[in-house]
Structures are given as C-alpha cells and as structure tokens.
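If you are new to this repository, start here. Below is one unmodified record pulled from the training split, so you can see the exact layout before writing a loader.
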Amino acid sequence: MADADDARLVETLRRAVDFAELDDQQLARLVTASSLRRFVAGETLFEKGSEPDGLYVVVSGSVRIFDVIQGNERDLAVIGTGDFTGEVSLALHTVRTRSAQAREDAEVLVIPVAAFDELASEHPALGSQLIEAFEDRMAGREEAAAEQD
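And here is the target side for that same chain:
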C-alpha cells in the first residue's frame, strides 16, 4: 500500500475503534499487517459458524449483518464507512454468530487475528473496548427498534 493509503487507513482505524491509547506508528503497524479487500455488492465477507479471521473495518461502502431465523434471512444491522464488525468473535475467540455481506460495493480493511492478538497483548484493554463498543451499538439498535414500535 502507498503511504497516502496507509495514512487514510490509519485515520479510518482511529475513527472506527477506540484506539485512543495507540499512536500513529502502532496503527500504521496494524495497517501494514492488514489487507484491504474489495467486495462487490452481494458478496459474502464471512458466514455464521465460520472461524474468525479478523476484524473487518469498512473503509467505503456498506455491509449488512444478518442471520437466518426460522428459515428466513433477517437483517440485523447495516454498517457503513468507519464502522466495524467481527469484534465479538475476535475478542471472545468464538465462531461467527452472524453473517456479513456487502450491501453495495465496499472496501474493507481486514485486521488478521494474529495482528489483533499481538496488539491486544500489548494493550489488554483493547478486547474489552471492542465488547463495550458492541454493547453500545446493540443498545442503540434496541432503542431505535423500540421507537419504531
């Protein structure tokens, strides 16, 4: 990746996840260990039940998070630029609990498990910060759903 791309991805990471305690050099190291993947609309990022391969940070476009409930696909969330998914499986070392698919053409930075684990070993609060971010997002979704009822 070019330096301009690296700088853009470092800023995306800084906004996406609570990396306040990390400096630009540490974030750049994380970007270097990651891969920028492009998904076309309808393409699967990961499937429910699969082993976690990393944290997915949306750089552009949008991604739908969904599950199959009683035989029907149900959208649980749509995440856009600057948001992330895969944090629960990554932080808890469990299989994916939902599936993710590009809702439109999307660029996604995939931070591999090994790079995340290395960073988390240097900054132990990182895993709990991801879980807190997930809980905050879920609470926000529940409030929005209650307002629609």
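Two things worth knowing about this chain: The helical segments are 3-16, 24-33, 87-92, 113-122, 125-148. The chain is about 45% helix and 30% strand.
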